[in-house]
Design brief:
With 371 residues, this protein is an alpha+beta fold. The protein has seven helices and twelve strands. It folds into two domains: 153 residues, Immunoglobulin-like (Sandwich); 178 residues, no CATH class. 15% of the residues lie in helices and 15% in strands. The longest helix is centred in the last third of the chain and has 17 residues. The protein binds heme C.
Length: 371
């Protein structure tokens, strides 16, 4: 049975809002991505990754199910019309990861395989499913397909800045503990461990432990990461990582966390290592105030509000997290004002909680030096 049979009558098709690729590096030699430019005036670096931003929350396996992305065609053969993955001539292989907070898919070139050639021109085609039952092709979480295939041409720069390196993978790091460097310089002298300055995923989860703590674990979820030392990993391992969310346990296979349930959302893990798009904890945050992007106004803000209502109607139950009556948000996924001190750390355009889940969701004792 295909996903489309679950599609609700009020479920609109998916639209691609933007495709950005690396066109330069910032002062820390990190990629700066700008919208793909068919005129060729802003050429893309040959080391680039490409980010696709969609208007709807996606079905993660429709954009990340295969090792190599089969819902896009990146090819130097500009004459071919690409309607299905089979039409893609001599493709540049790409690996995809989905970030539900931003509704973005990041496409990376693959080490050891054919990559972008300096000075050449390419066409990127983003593909919807060929029919109701097609396993590949961009779909919303409720099965609604991409409205139309989208084709964008761009040119690759003849030369790169000397510091450019291929963006084969997300930059590495200690995403769970991650110290804020300014904080370390101000408050910790030369203590490299300095748990006072932990700002990684552990810090975001710590802001939830007021309710999700031993003895009062709301909905059986214990997020007591052991502040101020951030040295307690057992509760996460026992109640969150790979554990099905109670609120999603409906239907006959309800007791086991499912990586690929027949219906998206059912028996979803609270935290699914390597798969932020299948992690219920993120959706509980996404539907709440800490994930509101204040830069969206007017129609865009209204559309996102409606989309969040669809998430809640489909599978995100109960109240948003942290609940509004909990008071001032202690972290935000999008800044409210410039230099917002509550803004979550970011890794290559992704909030650190999602980045930690994508990197495998391994908790650790932050009072020990990084391995
Ligand atoms: C003020 C208390 C409070 C705070 C703070 C709080 N929660 Fe909750 N949480 C609850 C309660 C009560 C429930 C069960 C009822 C509901 O979801 O509406 C719950 C349920 C959940 C669930 C569903 C668990 C399941 O098995 O279905 C998740 C996931 C969750 N919270 C994550 C978080 C995260 C992440 C944070 C911090 C960003 C957070 N909570 C902060 C009280 C809280």
């Amino acid at each position: 049975m295909g996903e489309a049979s679950y599609q609700r009558a009020d479920s609109p098709p998916v639209q691609l809002l933007e495709a950005r690729a690396t066109t330069s590096l910032d002062q820390n030699y990190q990629p700066v991505r700008t919208p793909l430019d068919p005129s060729g005036a802003i050429p893309v670096l040959s080391t680039a990754s490409i980010v696709l931003k969609f208007d709807r929350f996606l079905l993660p396996r429709s954009v990340g199910g295969a090792a190599l992305a089969d819902f896009v065609c990146l090819s130097g053969d500009l004459a071919a019309e690409v309607r299905t993955p089979a039409d893609c001539v001599n493709p540049i292989p790409l690996a995809a990861t989905y970030n539900p907070v931003q509704r973005e898919v990041i496409l990376r070139q693959v080490e050891g395989m054919q990559g972008l050639v300096p000075g050449s021109r390419y066409a990127l085609t983003v593909l919807g499913p060929v029919d109701e039952d097609a396993p590949s092709g961009v779909r919303a979480f409720d099965g609604a397909p991409l409205r139309d295939n989208v084709r964008i041409e761009f040119t690759v720069a003849a030369t790169n800045p000397p510091q450019a390196t291929p963006e084969f993978r997300m930059p590495g790091g200690d995403f769970y503990c991650q110290r804020d460097l300014e904080c370390v310089m101000e408050k910790c002298d030369d203590d490299p461990v300095c748990t006072m300055c932990v700002r990684g995923a552990a810090y975001v989860l710590f802001s939830c432990a007021g309710c999700h703590i031993d003895g009062n674990a709301s909905a059986g979820l214990n997020l007591n990461v052991g502040a101020p030392l951030f040295n307690n990993v057992a509760p996460l391992l026992e109640t969150a990582i790979g554990r099905a969310a109670h609120q999603t346990q409906v239907g006959e296979h309800a007791h086991l966390a499912e990586q690929t349930p027949e219906r998206f959302g059912r028996a979803m893990p609270i935290i699914d290592p390597n798969n932020p798009g299948n992690s219920y904890l993120l959706y509980k945050i996404i539907i709440g105030e800490n994930a509101i992007d204040p830069s969206l106004t007017g129609e865009a803000a209204e559309q996102l509000r409606e989309e969040i209502e669809r998430l809640r109607a489909a599978f995100v139950m109960g109240v948003p997290m942290p609940p509004p009556e909990w008071g001032i948000p202690q972290f935000r996924f999008f800044p409210e004002k410039p230099d917002d001190p509550t803004l979550t750390q970011y890794v290559d355009g992704m909030d650190i909680l999602s980045a930690w889940i994508l990197a495998g969701a391994v908790p650790r004792d932050c009072s020990m030096p990084a391995p």
